[in-house]
Amino acid sequence: MQSLRTYVDEFSADIKPHVDDCRTEFENKPFEIGGIEVEAPILYAALRIFQPERVVEVGVANGVSSYYILSALEANDNTGTLTSIDLPKYEDDHTGEWDANAGAWIPSGREVGWIVPDEYRDRWDVQIGNMSDLLPNELYSGDVDAFVYDGPKRYSERKRTFDMVANSVGDCLYFCDDIAWNPSFERWADQNRLRWDTFGNAGLAVDGEL
Ligand SMILES: C[S@@+](CC[C@H](N)C(=O)[O-])C[C@H]1O[C@@H](n2cnc3c(N)ncnc32)[C@H](O)[C@@H]1O
Q1: Is the distance from the beta carbon of residue 36 to the nearest atom of ligand 1 less than 6 Å?
Q2: Pfam families, per this entry (predicted)?
């Protein structure tokens, strides 16, 4: 295993530039690309260190976090799969405030997860629908090694989702973005006697050493 610094440097040099290129498409839009930002190197490095075989994600939008996860899986000796669940919001269907979806709108003419390059897609399964309906099927087998959550921020929804995952899977790495919205992630991790830490606006929790 390499040092955390090695993985963060790998992320900055090889992975992040693609997202910065895609960001130019949003220059004249009233919304941002909407992906995880300063916490991204932590997600990438954690997946490089923990080497998960199967990752499940909630919240795709334009696909920033999905791209980071798939990049880490490829760098992990080209092993592992990602299943991502999303109920996407498209610019063309927009009403109300642009902030309503934490800024994560998909521009006209683009599909969910569009920034993920073709060469990463053979290990990626995208499921469109409500996480409450789709997640139980993904958890059924119990073989989830990492769960990445960047879906709805509300306390009750987040807690319910993490409870559902923890009740179904064994040893798992949990990542949650936007933890500053409310203390649901930290409380859930304490209640489940997990080791957890926060990095900026992201939380990580595991059953063993962190
Ligand atoms: C903050 S965005 C995800 C950004 C993404 N992780 C990235 O890095 O680009 C949150 C996403 O969760 C979706 N979402 C909201 N409620 C959902 C639900 N009940 N089930 C599944 N996805 C949902 C939103 O439409 C949006 O696409």
Answers
A1: yes
A2: Methyltransf_24 (PF13578)
